[in-house]
Amino acid sequence: GKWDEILAEPMYTDKDVFPATIATQHYARGVAYASKGMVPEAEAEQVLFKEALANPALAGRMMHNNFMYQDPADGPSILNVNAAILEAEIEYRRQFLAKEAGEAHDFTAAFDELRRGVDLSLNLAYNEPWGQMQPVRHILGALLFEQGHIEEAEEVYRADIDLWKDNMWGLLGLKLCLEARGDAPEELAAVTDLFNERSARADIVPAKTCFCAQDALAKSCCD
């Protein structure tokens, strides 16, 4: 997550030279605030993010094969994926805090927006590395799992593993789902072995597939 480091990073200010960077910084700051439970601050960053998307200097800016931003009606772009993620992260945290406070809550809108983000990301033009560096399925799966939607989370992770063959994050998510199910010991053992192999050189072994989940760091990593 490194949320505090993101928030401490100086903002670029030249809107003519760095329009995409400025928009991306507001996106990252919004996700950081949302993940820290600071919803009003996240909402303020979302306003600035949307203002940055309206900057005429963004027109035609590319990241390899993808537009950084274009009107959604004109086709996919990286910042449109980011917009869906940011909206979902803020809405999720809003409902998460309401649930913690014993108030009425409904995660439907947050999950729907993440599903839309998955579709947007899958429709980006081919890039190496992929235009959306963090697969949206890793976010969706982690937050579905956090709210007990194990069956859909498992489907999300299996699709991710099919697309990004045996990647560490997808394997972690599938491992967690199989552990929660408790009825597939042989597959769990195989997935665990593969996850351990894929994560052997990781600097930090995560406990969830998105650091926006509240227990995303494995305790053993920081002891």
Q: How does the SSE layout of this entry go?
A:
Layout lengths: L2 H6 L10 H17 L3 H15 L8 E2 L2 E2 L10 H23 L7 H15 L13 H11 L3 H14 L4 H14 L3 H14 L25
Antiparallel strand pairs: 1-2
Helix pairs in contact: 2-3, 2-4, 3-4, 4-5, 5-6, 6-7, 6-8, 7-8, 8-9
Report on this model:
The protein has 223 residues and is mostly helical. The protein has two domains: 1-106; 134-223, Serine Threonine Protein Phosphatase 5, Tetratricopeptide repeat (Alpha Horseshoe), CATH 1.25.40. The chain has helices at 3-8, 19-35, 39-53, 78-100, 108-122, 136-146, 150-163, 168-181, 185-198, and strands at residues 62-63, 66-67. It has a two-stranded antiparallel ribbon with strand order 1-2. Helix 2 packs parallel to helix 4 (78-100) and helix 8 packs antiparallel against helix 9. It is globular, with a radius of gyration of 18 Å.
Helix content: 55-70%
The largest sheet has its strands arranged as 1-2
Q: Could you say which structural class the secondary elements and strand pairing correspond to?
A: mainly alpha
The SSE order reads: HHHEEHHHHHH
Q: Determine Rg (CA atoms, Å).
A: 18 Å
On the 0 to 100 scale, the average pLDDT is 94
Strand content: under 5%
The end-to-end distance, rounded to whole angstroms, is 18 Å
How would you characterize the largest beta sheet?
2 strands, antiparallel
Segments where pLDDT lies below 50 for 5+ residues? 218-223
Rough outline: globular
Using DSSP, what is the number of strands?
2
Total helical segments: 9
Overall number of domains: 2
